[in-house]
């Protein structure tokens, strides 16, 4: 844990993250709590995908800002992380997304007053994001990237249903996909060694889709991934993996392999959907490695 001096705070709000229409209310409450403590605050809203990166870069370039708050889910956090990477600005998270996995992983506050107190107290922890290269370009991910069944589900989930019912929308998408998905065999290169799998998840942390344990040995502060390879294909195997995830036994399944690595490449088959931090993110081929630029994240002083 390191401490950082407080200057001004920029709050970036993704108005489409999570469920319902309350992200702006959360951001307003956080801004109020910070202003009451005498902190200068700027609130800006994203207009479209990728805009959070541009807004974070602009805040860093403008200078004077010590913290940038990502108001959204893991996708928004990743975009803000990319915008402030390489600077001394601290990333704070106001978790109003759907799954908010990074916030759960790091035990970050979900309450605005507690987040304001954490920012003011200045405690931070360091994480090493993943860098993802696809045909669409380079991006960062803070929690995970995947190819296979889960990426297909992310690509096919209805955005309107996600807005209306949150994580339940993924359940609908899973049930629809189980018998329709074609389950191709992936060729996954993990630190140079080739493996075959029906699905692969490259995970920076231990958790997945909320609080479910995917890769227990993964720690955000380490410069490594856990690569989770699913050995069996088909609807019944996928159902078993899903139930095991819910019951916390997925890492113990005989046909699930978890490897520690720093580079991963999935070149074939080409054209398969890719998910990054739970959002659709182009298609294979992909390459992933650990960023050489760490991100400092504001944490509750009481938990670390
Ligand atoms: N103004 C905007 N309009 C449309 N999409 C946006 C806008 N701002 C950001 N986005 C995109 O919204 C997507 C979803 O955001 P985010 O991941 O933060 O929320 P979520 O999916 O609800 O939460 P989680 O990732 O925790 O499940 C991201 O891919 C981001 O690029």
UniProtKB/TrEMBL annotation:
Cellular component annotations (GO), alphabetically ordered: plasma membrane
Extent of the signal sequence: none
Domain of life: Bacteria
Segments crossing the lipid bilayer: none
Keywords: ATP-binding, Kinase, Nucleotide-binding, Transferase
InterPro entries to which the protein is assigned, alphabetical: ATP-NAD_kinase_N, Diacylglycerol_kinase_cat_dom, Lipid_Phosphate_FormReg, NAD/diacylglycerol_kinase_sf, YegS/DAGK_C
Keyword field contains ATP-binding: yes
Domain DAGKc: 4-136
One Gene Ontology molecular-function label: ATP binding
Pfam families recorded: DAGK_cat (PF00781), YegS_C (PF19279)
Listed name of the protein: Diacylglycerol kinase
Protein's organism: Komagataeibacter nataicola
């Amino acid at each position: 844990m390191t401490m950082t001096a407080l200057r001004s705070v920029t709050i970036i709000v993704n108005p489409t993250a999570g469920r319902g229409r309350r992200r702006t209310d959360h951001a307003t409450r956080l801004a109020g709590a910070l202003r009451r403590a005498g902190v200068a605050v700027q609130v800006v809203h994203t207009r479209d995908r990728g805009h959070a990166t541009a807004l974070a870069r602009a805040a860093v370039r403008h200078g004077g800002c010590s913290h940038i708050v990502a108001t959204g889910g893991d996708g928004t956090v990743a975009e803000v992380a990319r915008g402030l990477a390489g600077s001394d600005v601290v990333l704070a998270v106001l978790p109003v997304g759907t799954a908010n996995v990074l916030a759960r992983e790091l035990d970050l506050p979900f309450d605005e007053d507690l987040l304001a107190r954490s920012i003011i107290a200045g405690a931070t922890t360091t994480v090493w994001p993943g860098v993802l290269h696809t045909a669409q370009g380079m991006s960062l991910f803070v929690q995970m990237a995947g190819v296979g069944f889960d990426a297909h589900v992310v690509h096919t989930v209805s955005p309107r249903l996600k807005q209306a019912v949150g994580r339940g929308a993924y359940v609908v998408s899973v049930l629809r996909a189980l018998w329709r998905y074609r389950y191709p065999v992936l060729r996954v290169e993990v630190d140079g060694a080739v493996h075959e799998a029906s699905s692969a998840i490259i995970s920076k942390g231990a958790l997945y889709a909320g609080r479910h344990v995917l890769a227990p040995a993964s720690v955000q502060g380490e410069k490594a991934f856990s690569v989770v390879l699913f050995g069996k294909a088909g609807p019944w195997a996928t159902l078993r993996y899903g139930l095991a995830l819910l019951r916390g036994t997925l890492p113990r399944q005989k046909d699930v392999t978890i490897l520690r690595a720093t580079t991963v490449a999935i070149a074939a088959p080409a054209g398969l959907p890719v998910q990054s931090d739970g959002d659709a993110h182009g298609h294979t081929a992909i390459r992933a490695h650990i960023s050489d630029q760490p991100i400092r994240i504001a944490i509750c002083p009481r938990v670390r």
